[in-house]
User: Fold this.
Amino acid sequence: MTDKKTDFGEWYNETVEKAQLCDKRYPIKGMNVWTPYGWKLMTQIDAYIRREMVATGHDEVCFPLLIPQTEFNKEKEHIKGFDSEVYWVTKAGNNDLDIPLLLRPTSETAMYPMFSLWIRSHTDLPLKVFQIVNTFRYETKQTRAFMRVREIHFFESHTCHETEEDAQKQVEQDMVIMDNVAKELCLPYSMLVRTEWDKFPGAYYTVGIDTVMPSGRTLQLGSIHHYRTNFSKPYNITYEDDKGEHHYVHQTTYGMSERLLGAVVGVHADDKGLILPPAIAPVQVVIVPIFSKNNRDEIMAACKVVNAALQDTGFRSKVDDRDLRPGNKFFDWEMRGVPLRLELGGRDLESQVVTFARRDTGEKGTLDTNSLAPGVKLLLDTVAQNMLVKATQYQQEFVKEITTTEGMDSVPDGVILKFGWCGDPKCGHAFEDKYDMKILGTPYRKENWTGKCLMCGKEGIKPVYAARTM
Amino acid sequence: MTDKKTDFGEWYNETVEKAQLCDKRYPIKGMNVWTPYGWKLMTQIDAYIRREMVATGHDEVCFPLLIPQTEFNKEKEHIKGFDSEVYWVTKAGNNDLDIPLLLRPTSETAMYPMFSLWIRSHTDLPLKVFQIVNTFRYETKQTRAFMRVREIHFFESHTCHETEEDAQKQVEQDMVIMDNVAKELCLPYSMLVRTEWDKFPGAYYTVGIDTVMPSGRTLQLGSIHHYRTNFSKPYNITYEDDKGEHHYVHQTTYGMSERLLGAVVGVHADDKGLILPPAIAPVQVVIVPIFSKNNRDEIMAACKVVNAALQDTGFRSKVDDRDLRPGNKFFDWEMRGVPLRLELGGRDLESQVVTFARRDTGEKGTLDTNSLAPGVKLLLDTVAQNMLVKATQYQQEFVKEITTTEGMDSVPDGVILKFGWCGDPKCGHAFEDKYDMKILGTPYRKENWTGKCLMCGKEGIKPVYAARTM
Assistant:
């Protein structure tokens, strides 16, 4: 087994495979099979996203996968951005199609012709919908499970508003949603306004949501876009205000994907296997009976009592009654990332305790049998908090603030740079080309920061972050 | 509004549209947009299917949408059955693909190459998986929402077993699952072994699950297939038994689709709109305040108490506090099929009752405020039972048993025939061609029945049912 520090990429692939999250042997590169354990994790993440969306007044919908070329062609920037990576359906049965159909890379061009029919008056606004669907991008770069695939398990919300300000408020709400979801996954993240040349094709501006892999490369977890009227004009999405005047709607979108699961693996797992955030672990607590001579029935009965008590309190727990040695069971559940293991043997039974082992730190201790459920709750909460704190500290250590490029010929992998940039694309491109890094953007929330442009020396400008990306 | 009896087809389309279950204006024929209300109903149906599958030891998976032509071509009968209705991806970005990819019409040819890798030993069996995904068929017949579409919301389970008998037991289990799901939807159905020329391409035999529309045409809700080793041979899915010998696995599949929702609309709805089975209604109980002078606050407060009491007991209830007249609210909720309406006005409040109105029968009455939740439970159970009984009686009335074709030149629409058939395809085809009907098949459960073949007069044979289909 490769270790995480030596070769992150290889370690990641092995960890995904060992934990049986997906099967990459499907005969199309970058299109993997979601096997049961991976799919359970993904749908649990989906459930949190769905909860947040419903709580903020979004309706779930499901649009067709295929989009006619004629609809796709309406927004010029958007086509340019996706043209090289769409899959085309050109034949059905034995017929060549008159109008080729594309597999959605994202659903703007599927939804907006319908929005134009659905929205008539200001009373139809805001319109807020989301869907969780499969999308497709013909990746030419090397694929990697969950991080860069050709069939993507995708979340997208789309909203329409009366004014630019209303749309802006939606962007802010999306950020709260992101924060709530990221907390369940114990994932640190940053919100950076992307450069003009890196924004979503057709957007007014894009906020990228990034986390950092242990290799120091960043992974985009999602993005939030303000479109202003850039799409409502070509798709003719207008509303009548209370004075009878017609206006184009202002739109936003918010997208996330299976990369959230990729990030959970990459950020939290260790050389023993997965470490799952308690919120998404299909099994949160595994109970392993430790038999000694002649006490098998007694121990099994006690394990079942413990399990029932935990399940009654709402925990996802399980007794591992397989005919295996305890050590093999420990190994197995550690690989699958179960956050808390309970062991119950003769001595535990006598002392009216159970022994616990935390997956995140390996810490062991005992819990009183008569306050088991509150004890488990406290432990799982502590595990979640620790996972987030640890990951946050780890990620921050990659960031290095610089004020000059003097003597800097190259930047090694594993460094995220923070520096001033005047905003001129010329300076930006010059930096990116010279150091083979990407400018991730400037913090969405204003920081108390002053400095000069790293390239041209101009003063009074904003900080940006630059990194190499997964 | 067209009425259900006069023109079922037109009535169905209007009912779907009025209840806003989907939007058919999407610019590809037969690919409709799932709007929020329809999608809520569909995902609630999915939840019951998922519950049944998990309870019977099936693992949920998700396979890629695209299938390489090379894999698709391995089972000859299967290709013949689907060749004329698959969509082909031939281009990605600006490249022509070396091997064309097809959009799954069903997932045998996606899954079985992987099963061949997953299964090694008898300890890997049975393998039981299912998925709920979008599938595609290039329909050339007239499309109809939920009943005949080109992008299909689809459920499919696939199982592998050591022996033909084990596979046969799975078929029986699938039938129990079907029964449990159909009960939640208050849908009567029949299980008929399809004719050889109508079975699933590649199957050993197919059991079709049909229900009857008010027009007397049947609608296939799903099907269960026993494949024997017909697919495991071309896909080389083998296992080693405990003596070290290798055998091909025996396989079954079970498929259902959004037609379940189409059937709920077609079977239960009336000229006022939907009538939803309580199990899937997004709102099971709507509470309408009936204001008179100066009692608005008092009534609203009482409605909220009722609503809280119902929600605490686990009902999906809602107070309609919109600024509309009660009659308009009644109209609205009737259209959306809410099974139970409660009204609360000044007089109800005085008498400590709420007035109820059942959607299925229109029956009105009162419930005591102090035993509201049990009263509502009883009413909803009664509604569900009545819906199933009524639909069952209605469907049975279409069936007409005949022993001779003497004097029968044609069969009018709205008749399902039961008669004897010797099993010879010649007699079967002759009947189908002459009367423009389809032989649905012979009952899976043996009936105590004797008779002669309607066409050739041979004795001691099985009964079959024949109908026109949706």
User: Anything to note?
Assistant: Chain A has three domains: 8-268, 285-385, 399-467.
